[in-house]
Design brief:
Radius of gyration of chain B: 23 Å
Structural class of chain A: alpha/beta
Largest sheet of chain B: 5 strands, parallel
Number of helices of chain B: 17
Oligomer: heterodimer
Strand content of chain A: 25-35%
Radius of gyration of chain A: 18 Å
Distance between the termini of chain A: 29 Å
Distance between the termini of chain B: 36 Å
Largest sheet of chain A: 7 strands, antiparallel
Strand order of the largest sheet of chain B: 3-2-1-4-16
Helix content of chain B: 25-40%
Shape of chain B: globular
Helix content of chain A: 25-40%
Chain lengths: 280, 482
Amino acid sequence: MYTVVRKQELAEQVTLFEVEASLVAAKARPGQFVIVRADEKSERIPLTLADWDAERGTIIIIFQQVGRSTMELALLKTGDAIRDIVGPLGRPSEIENFGTVVCVGGGIGVAELKPIARALKEAGNTVISIIGARCKSLLMLEDEMRAASDELYVTTDDGSYGRQGFVSDVLDELLKSKRKINMVYAIGPVPMMRVIAELTKPVGLKTIVSLDAIMVDGTGMCGACRVTIGGKTRFTCVDGPDFDAHEVDWDELIARKKIYLAEEKEALARFEEVHAGGCH
Amino acid sequence: MPKEIMKREPMPRQAPETRARNFEEVALGYSQEQAVREAKRCLSCKHRSCIAGCPVEIDVPEFVRLIAEERFSEAAAELKKTNALPAICGRVCPQEEQCELTCVLQKRGEPVAIGRLERFAADWEAAHSEPGGLCEPALAPPPSDRVAEVAVIGAGPAGLTAGRELACLGYDVTILEALHEPGGVLAYGIPEFRLPRTILRREIEYVKSLGVRIETDVVIGKTLTLSELFDRGYSAVFIGTGAGLPQFMNIPGENLNGVYSANEFLTRVNLMHAYQFPDYVTPVKLGKKAAVVGAGNTAMDAARCALRLGAEEVAIVYRRSRTEMPARLEEIENAEEEGVRLHLLTNPVRFIGDENGWLKQMECIRMELGEPDQSGRRRPVPIAGSEFIMEVDTVIIAVGQNPNPMVRQSTPELETTHWGGIVVDEETGATSIPGVYAGGDAVTGAATVITAMGAGRKAARAIDQYIRSKLGIEQEPQPAVS
């Protein structure tokens, strides 16, 4: 059992948990994730390691309530326990002094981007970050990202905060400004990562994305998370989650993420049935 | 010899049409009367060749005699001297290739149903003992007298056996398991209708009752490394990480929606209880027409799960002929009775999807058997121009598993074969690293539960010798259980 020691609503429908998981905290590196199983009947879901504190023996996970599993998780309160947390899983992000790195984060992807941006800055890079959300209430970790970056741009789709538009608009301008950029890290919804990949591919700018394929065990045993990278099948859980954005078969990834749409709806309906009519 | 002695007592089973739609256990087990009748068929011959046929060397004639004499509790105790998991082995061991193969009755009739009797004795004991009464603490010394600490990686058949043996030899044992539940392949691979979870949990509780600790959610190679285990004070390590890395066919369309590895499909169904969706949240998606590629026990399990989940048609697609099918005969018969069809001498060449990435068809080619290959089986050769299309919406690939790579990848000094098996001394299970032993599918590639248990047992004894010689402790007389 893994006790939740702090719970915070980070943005609309976005929850932060600080959880006791000392072995994971001691080993975590930027870019890695954990598999979480909220309770006996829950799914095993991969969640990004947003931060960790080896001394306190805690990790930070941040998740958006998008389906039954994340909604179940969000019901937990400080002092409650999560049934299972296993990790840190996946290969850590490659961190070295590349020069100037642009870190692009969309929505919940900012949670994973933050430790990567911080590590890149610590490694001596000039870090330019661009974060965005659909609207102000969904934006998260602005202060933390500002601290982890040399420059920060903020966008919202509806213009309710920062600059109106997409994170890719800012990257496009940076590319056109002819500033020297050595590498791009992009983490966010698949359409966002794909647009970023399409922007940087023609100019041959190395771009790394972190893929969130469907997983079960998260340790290379099932192959649910297989993706095609440069024509070869890879397992996101053990070969990734970071991959070269220009090599990803995006259409296949998008199709595979939709496998259980109908079942997710059904599971959600059951959840809402059970949790309706409570004390609101 | 009287004629009736040549025939074994039949095993009561659920009727095929009923069981093909539920996840309840297929084989129902012998009644007391049946078990005694069957046990009395044993000739108590001098050859005792059944013992040599058993990888953990159960004293078969002895436990069978005890059943014949209606001393059931003693029969179970006899089994447990050498076998940590008798109710499991009685259900999933390929006895027809082991103890029963060497039974002298086999020459003129049917061998004694040793597996069924093993199951009977273990189940009888569980039904007639107090909750927790399975524990025989006398077998394992009290915690204060433990010689040293040993870590076991993986709570599957090899690890559970090694853990139990080491506990009985006087060690403080911790089993580290990557998944959220112990059991390894017994938990994620073998379906409920062949091995009910209650049986699995019962035998795991027995191992724990001897003082063995099981820590779940620990992935060696990620959460901790092998060398860190020694830093934490363990004197030796046993690696029983199994063969959980699924093989794919590397043919076009394999990543279409609707194509599963057998591991994913079975893990969803068994470990995650997808057959109880949406009460359990993990889903599994199954179409109307399912094909399972491969013909081992895993393939049979997957095909029979697919039927139970409501597929209208389930086919086994196998590139060789019936004779070469690696699955147990009993499982093939069970599958066919339930309605699984066999498409033999057939091999998929590509998967065809619709515009949304969903599997719709599978193109196959007919095969014929040529000369024997390295495995001694006749090599299947494609017949040119024989391609045809099968309409399918679910395909489960069950063509084999390789050893799990996590420990190997994080431990470069651990010697492995080109296909990822850990290299060991066959007699002891010793690896290229002093104090590190390995056994089971992590060494051999996918094999059977009982060979893994045999390897766990051997390695436990070798670990005992290693630690005793290192600590300069005299070899103590082996306890009765060994």
